[in-house]
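job 3f2a | input accepted
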Amino acid sequence: MHKTFSFTRLARACALRVTLCLLAVVCLARAAAAEPAQTIVNNGDPANRVDIVLLGDGYTAAEMSKYQSDIEEFVRLMFEQEPLKEYQRFFNVHRIDVVSAESGSDHPELGTSRNTAFDSGYNCSGIQRLICANTFKVSNVAAASLAPAQIDLIILIVNDPTYGGSGGSIAIASTNTAAVELVLHESGHTFGLLADEYTESPPACSNTSEPVQANVTRQTARAAIKWNAWIDAPTLLPTTSTQPGLVGLFEGARYCTTGLYRPTFNSKMRSLGRPFEQVNGEQLVRRIYNRVSPVDTFAPANGSAIQLTAGQAQNFSVATPAPLTHALAVSWTVDGQPAGNSTSLTLAAGTLNAGSHTVQATVSDPTTFVRSDPEQLLTERVTWSVNVTAANPIDGSEFFVAQHYRDFLLREPDADGLNFWVQGIESCGLNAGCREVKRIDTSAAFFLSIEFQETGYFVYKTYKAAFGNLPGKPVPVRRDSFLGDTRTIGSGVIVNVGNWREQLEANKNAYALAFVQRADFQTAFPGSMTAAQFVDKLFANANVTPTAGERDAALAAFGSGRAAALRSVAESRTLHQLELNRAFVLMQYFGYLQRNPDDAPQQGLNFDGYNFWLGKLEEFGGDYRRAEMVKAFVTSIEYRQRFGPQ
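job 3f2a | predicted structure (646 res):
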């Protein structure tokens, strides 16, 4: 009977919560009133649980006790089956009490009808056991009665003992106990993204391309089969055995008798009343973890670095969801070294050297239900940065220089470069004035370096040419976009080491090619633009009046592609000179303060500070020494507090 419901599956490619939210938006116009709702199974914060919503149709006010009993029985039967049984604590269940005027459901085949809240009825589309209902009403009532985070999967229970139900975005089942099987099968589609494993059609067989579902494949080579991890070496492929639970390669699946294969001889996705079996169970567990993180909560918050002095200690902890018969595994490391296996760790700063350290908790599920987790859904890592100081480490030359590599070049220092800059500062000996000047010049040198100019500044200029300044802001790029793109271009590049020029050129070409393929760029620069229109718009966005040679060079580059033209404009001398001071100031915030100029703690959350320093720098013709810009940032409280006491 379950084979008749494939027409309801058109919307299943959408994420479940998105689908339900869209339905709720559509239904708002109907202004459904909230109905009494009760959480009957509470296993934690809805933000980190799968939330099932149960409603009833055809229950009168006098039958509310029966309705509550029916719901309890349905939930009991649903969570008797694996893997839902093992992971039942990952679910919340909410019951919404909706009263119908009359008891039961429509039976057109018997000539009877009932006045019910959600208009349920058998014999939908001429199929006696197919129950349909007004799913818009159901979604609307759910949205009015519960918070969005409490709605992941909606199930409607119809007060009729005749076997029946249906699937789709909302599962429907009668009170017949066998109808639970139908809901589980259909939830395998809606929630588990599993395919039907039976061969009968409609729908029509389609076996010309590899299915996206985890339980169907065209592949016959053992290594290429999605569920290869479950196939024992002696098992013959294709597999003809009828042994229950044997994982192999069984021909016939997803409405095709040939050309597509399923993991087991039979399962709930092929026949009702069967277990999900291993591969489908694995997929359901992965889908649960797609919604539920292995980490419920952790402490302390891991935003900014934790500052400790040598005499202090810090407690770290994680809390996890709890499967029924096994526990999630927790392991701790400090600077990559094992440090414990409980849910908490006490770190004594006195056991660590002064400097920056990393504490990490890894939480994973060692379940036997899953053998393949390519997306690492069953693993979550929480990382904390800890700075241990006696005095502020930024005052040390090696730490100071190394931090500039991380803040501006976004990499760890190479030994030769680190030694060069450290020695430059240390050559001043105890001369405090000399050391201050050397530290300022060393700091500025990272922005002016070939490596940064060819990576970070190139990214800045690319955004400027592509889009101009951000709306309402005097800068073209935000820090998060800047960091990711700069890392991309700088990957594998250390100036004067190896084939750095070739690597840099390859990185920049690849970056420009990917940039022009971004959706926002293609929207701003349609493919129908001529070379002149494309190039002129780039210069206009950058607020640059190019020289004739620069424009001609960009037009010529267009012959090699839009990416080449974008590079030509971004690397033009006029744009380079025009934006140098602006980029210099912006990088003070991105690098030293690790934030955007208008982020907290900037008073007023505006660009007043940025504009002040840009004005100072331009007043002194770009001379950062006389403008005292670099000095102000490297001695600021905000910068020094990144590493220790002021």
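job 3f2a | Residues 399-640 form one domain.
job 3f2a | closed
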